[in-house]
Amino acid sequence: MKASLWCALFLFLILPGFAQLRGPGTEFQITKITKNLISTPQFTYTGAEQFQANQREQWLEIEVEFSAAPQWTEELTFKYYVLFNGKLLTGEVTHTNIPAGRDNRSVMYVAPRTLLRFGGGRTVTANMVQNVTVQLLQQGAVKGEASLQRAPPQWFNTIPQVAGFVLNKSETPFAPLYWDRYEQIKTPTR
Asked: 0.85 cut: is pTM over it?
């Protein structure tokens, strides 16, 4: 009787963890989404006139943490949907050469002028970001989806989308920072 109970407990507690790693759609999982309003980075250099960025202007930074089960993944695409002040801003980034692990990260940004434009000229606050959803795709197939706020799956399909305003790290002044924190961005082929 005792052995049967231990065996059942083992099957109930331990095996579901293994099944999650091997089952369909569990190779990748978005584990956390964070949003921050941050200032433009300041750089010092020589050889030309230097200009100070307005430190009152804020960028919206959206960071995604995710796990990957395969030892190496060639490519993953992240689609970002940012509901900001009633407007749905979208953007995507493709990462390459992704190792297995739980500490993988992707990041995207919304520029200060974009926030000002879609914020109606008002001072930008964190509350103006009503929701963020990120989809993780591999070869066009959705492998994961998570939202900052609780929302029905694919809620963003019912709202007109404004593309081109959610920028990957390489398209911003943050490009040279934290190379080892974020996954490598696939460069477009020419």
From this structure: no
Average pLDDT, the chain: 85
Q: Is the dihedral of CA 170, 175, 179, 182 positive or negative?
A: negative
If you write DSSP's letter for every residue of 38-77 in order, what string do you get? EEPP----SSS------TTSEEEEEEEEEEEEEEEEEEEE
Strands (E), the chain: 28-39, 58-84, 87-110, 129-138, 141-147, 161-163, 167-168, 184-185
pLDDT above 70 for 53? no
* Cα dihedral value 168, 169, 174, 178, nearest 10: 160
Share of the chain above pLDDT 70, in %: 79
Calculate the alpha carbon distances from 47 to 52, 172, 176 in Å.
16, 22, 19
Give me the residue label for tokens 């941050």. 38
Q: Contact, 124 vs 115, CB < 8 A?
A: yes
For residue 86, the number of C-alpha atoms closer than 13 Å in the C-beta half-sphere is: 4
DSSP structural state of residue 147:
E
Distance CA 179, CA 107 (A): 11
